[in-house]
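fyi for ur records
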Amino acid sequence: MKKILTVIAAALLGACAPKPQAVVINNPLPIALGDPYILLASDGNYYMYGTGGVRDGFAAYRSPDLVTWDSLGQVYTGNTDSSWAVANFWAPEVYERDGRYYMFFSADWRENPTNELENFKIGVAVADTPAGPFRELTAGPLFDPGYPIIDANVFCDEDGRCYLYFSRCCYKHPVESEVADWAREQGMFDEIEESWIYGVELKPDFSGVIGEPVLLLQPPVAMNDAQSEWESRSVTSGEVNRRWTEGSVTFRKGDTYYMMYSANFFGGKNYAVGYATAESPLGPYTKAVNNPVLEKNVEKGGVVTGTGHNSITWSKDGKTMYCVYHGRTSATGDARVVFIDEMEILPDGQLVVHGPTTGPAAE
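which gave:
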């Protein structure tokens, strides 16, 4: 599928006006990362972070145009003598605030007295530049809700208040539902574990949270729920006894808050993206009727599966919104690779992602 993604070139020195420049994005990018996040920094460059590529930490890439990317190597290293984070470094996102750069990420907490198999918490590291090096902001995780959590996303509203969104892991979280009943009746699984998305206000200096987390999104309970079919595919296909609601990203358009999220197994073909809307950053959120907005296309003659855990970035003129996500193709096999496709909010408020696309994005 071919299309032109247009970005605006940086203004020339002097009185020259910026001119539009056609940019060809060839999906997938030659970058093997999961959970990709792109920051358009104040220096005019794009910086990409994600899961994988290095050991015990995160790598970064830099681009002037979303097309050509240079590796910056490892920009954060955990599992040191002084680090609270010791393994399974996942889903970094970097935010620029007051001239500094804050990386929110998930990892296994060193403190694990009961030897839990999943002991994930969220932490923050800080740097003076988006290229790092990032150093942990605090001696421990951001907070401990009493269960494993991953996939931090931060949204700062127009009033200056910031919010952290995260996913409670499926681990040791069995939930009764009609889908769980169906799975038992089919002799597939004895129980279905679920992950749920929560939100909580952040302290202004990003050193902790304010108040208690609020449950915002979870998988459907009823089989006839409009969202149940696509959000339950990992279970109904017999792939695994878990239903995920994870990888959220929140933004505001007018008076509406949009939360995109991923469902199904991140390592499988059914990983897909939907969204929900609300009138306040902590909900309540209502799932969209046009979900999923991003999913595999092999049934339509394409080669892409496992599309999910997206983030959002913008053209330099702020007019074009891009969906950044990972997926797999028949050529890349099990490796997760990065895709960038245009997305938009239609006049009726519906969110649409124009993807997944593959090949040179030229008409």
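The longest strand covers residues 85-97. thats all i got for now
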